[in-house]
From TrEMBL, chain A:
It comes from the Bacteria. Belongs to the binding-protein-dependent transport system permease family. Pfam families: BPD_transp_1. Signal peptide: none annotated. This is ABC transporter permease. The chain crosses the membrane at residues 53-77, 89-110, 130-148, 183-208, 228-249. The keyword Cell membrane applies. Keywords: Cell inner membrane, Cell membrane, Membrane, Transmembrane, Transmembrane helix, Transport. GO terms for biological process: transmembrane transport. The lineage of its organism: Bacteria, Pseudomonadati, Pseudomonadota, Alphaproteobacteria, Rhodobacterales. It is found in: Cell inner membrane; Cell membrane. InterPro entries: MetI-like, MetI-like_sf. It comes from Rubellimicrobium rubrum. CDD domains: TM_PBP2.
From TrEMBL, chain B:
SMART domains: AAA (SM00382). This is ABC transporter ATP-binding protein. Residues 4-236 form the ABC transporter domain. Keywords: ATP-binding, Nucleotide-binding, Transport.
Amino acid sequence: MTRILAWVALILGMLYFILPLVGMTEFSLSMRRGVYSLDAYTTILGDPRFRQTFGYSVLMAVATIIFGVLLVVPTAYWVRLRLPWIRPYIEFITLLPLVIPAIVIVFGYIRLYNTSSWLPLTGSSMGTNLLLVFGYATLALPYMYRAVDTGLRTLDVGTLTEAAQSLGAGWGTILFRVILPNVLVAVLSGAFLTFAIVIGEFTMAALLDRPAFGPFMQILGANRAYEPAALAVIAFAITWACMGLIQLVTRLQKHTRAGA
Amino acid sequence: MAYLDIAHLEKSFGANRVVKDFSLPIDKGEFVSLLGPSGCGKTTVLRMVAGFETPSAGAIRIEGKDIVPLRPNQRNIGMVFQAYALFPNLTVAQNVGFGLRIAGVAGKEAQTRVGEMLDIIGLPLAEYGARYPFQLSGGQQQRVALARALAPRPRVLLLDEPLSALDAKVRVRLRGEIRDIQRRLGITTIFVTHDQEEALSISDRVVVMNAGIADQVGSPFEIYNRPATPFVASFVGTLTPFEATVIDPRVGTVMSGGLTMNLGRPLSAETGTAVPIALRPEAVQLGRASGREIILPATAREVEFMGSVIRIRAEAAGQSFLLDTFNRPDAPPPQPGEAVEISFSGRDVIVIGV
Amino acid sequence: MVGRPRSPHVTDTSLPPSPRRNVLAPILRMVGVVPFLVFALLFLIGPTLYIVLGAFQRTGGGWTLENIVALNTPSVRNAYWVSIKISFISALLGCLIGFAMSAGAVLGGLPKWVRSPLLTFSGVASNFAGVPLAFAFLATIGPAGLITMWLRQDLGINLRAYGFNLLSTPGLIITYLFFQIPLMILIITPALDGLRREWREAAMVLGATGWQYWRMVALPILFPSLLGCLALLFANAFGAVATAIALTGSSLNIAPILLYAQIRGDVLGNPHLGYALATGMIAITAVANTVYIVLRARSERWLR
């Protein structure tokens, strides 16, 4: 009885999840009347705006990841090592982006950093790009911090640091040659997740008026029929690849740990 | 007839026979331990009695009625788990009253029963009743688990390694309390453990299990002094094993190395056959003593100070002997390498399997 | 056993030798988190505070509740109400369906191999939100979508005639479920894993049926987690802007779309009304998340 119910729940659930994926794939192949074709994809891939916006978003994602790692890893490490009492407060701050909708944060940016403010970041395109990276870093903060902090928990940070110090290592060496390699898997997991979030992000990029992939998809969706479905397939493939990479690095780590 | 009768029980997981032809009649009010290393099948036997595993063959009868077809919630059996397994969302009183609530016992009657049970385990209702499990120590949690199991007056009590998760001191105290409560309530109990000291100290009878088979069933005294198989001999307690040859089975003379011993009892083996024999460390004496007719010059090799007892490994007659001697503040133990004398009696020699 | 002695020159650096350093040490130690705090202040807390404070200020300066009061127009009220409705229903359905699927995979009923692909897929689907998700649903049950056309051409069923429209409240709910259900699976599975087998067995030997075990033990234990998940899913849907915009353009009047329009073009005619609108959104998600955090702490306390 329970088993039948469980199967029914699973199959109905799977149907719900698979149908839209089938739908978008089918639609993306139907640009030429009557036959399946890759026309939608060729159109998209040939579109210079696609290349520009996609390249821009990849660049933003990479910048966000680098900035996020540089911000989160030393902080999480230092908090674990020297300021354990502050951890709940830091953790609370890192969870705030889940509470404050992204649209509100970016609204604040626009008002706080406009051309007539003390820090006119939105005055130049470079400044706005920077602002977008910071915005993305806040979006990624909950996931990045959680991943790194969990990674650090499995290490004995104190002993590791003392051991490195006793061998004459400075803080830079400790952070980049001892701590970072040991939380690399956590950092990579956070990085891939960040990539998946940033690559198709719409709200922040659109409101800051940046030529990113998310707003491009939205504009295309308002004007075309088949190309958006092809974009959805591409976006889904990217998300899937990011999650696959997370699984891959986690599994690789398990193997090396087991072998050690 | 036995109150709880386990007859020819079998259990296989796939091709793996975990329990093989296991039979054990238990009298009403008896405290029986299943002792063995992990994977010997003792927990599987217990889980079959509780109803969590279905036997591949065999019967489990309580008062003559087979309970195998019954589901766990129809068996009226109490069980205590290794990891307490108290319901974390219920208070101590609610945990103890859980079985009563299920049975439809309510109001004053249930309240009284819960109070009684909490008194028995020494956690009075007034003080502890409203606490949650996470506010109790491990020992207290396990006591509550015991009270919870006993509250609905089960026919049989099953204890699945209930002391393994506790600190050494709490473990010793709680096992005494468990035995005390069990005696007072007169409840038939099966206790599963891998700790031989635990099993020997509180049981009426001990079943030593090995690879799904009951190697030996007997009182703690019998198990310790007359191990039936080499496995029982090696698993229960410490001993020094020897190979010996039977010289005269009628009077019980054997020879080991160059040493002839008279065991003071007839042997069932033929002259010239090899028999495994062994000595407990406490049967060997440092120096001479009355009644220990075999006296050997020896060399102390290792001296291990264990508190009230000092364990010494000595070599004599080309053999290695373990011996225990009580600590006496006025007589320091020998140094390794020192020449000593050891003595023992042939009557204390254990013949394994006889 | 003898404890291994520490290497002599490894001293505990958290205990500096001189009293002078002792005074400075706590301050110096704080330096390590300064970059993070500055970042959080400038790009997370500051902008939010600016908005929240702006909601209580007049254009010329001075404190007021006018902006909050001015939100009470039929259009804004309706936007919040539709948003809350969509978020709540999609959260509730997401919780129920996600729980059922996770329970099926974790507590038996389904074979063991289902679990790992289910979790992997949930990881992907919960992050497949925003614009592409809207496209996927448009291509499937939109006006010219795969299923819509199939039903119309092959079975003669016109969804539109039955009142179904993807660009509507129910349509949005169906779309949101695509990331709500997987999110639920991801956060409730560890909680279900936390249900120990012994609890069920202990309840069984005490005479309880499966249903009694669920009613008296398992559900009360899971209850804080379930309610917490509901709150998290609610906040998750409430802040979703991209999916809604890509799906409906600006035809649907919900709070995030209204705010989006306000930021782009001051449709309310008063920037401080925009602040008030945003503050209202924060207030609602903050309540939902506070519920989540409090309840999670409670369930963790039990399960310590």
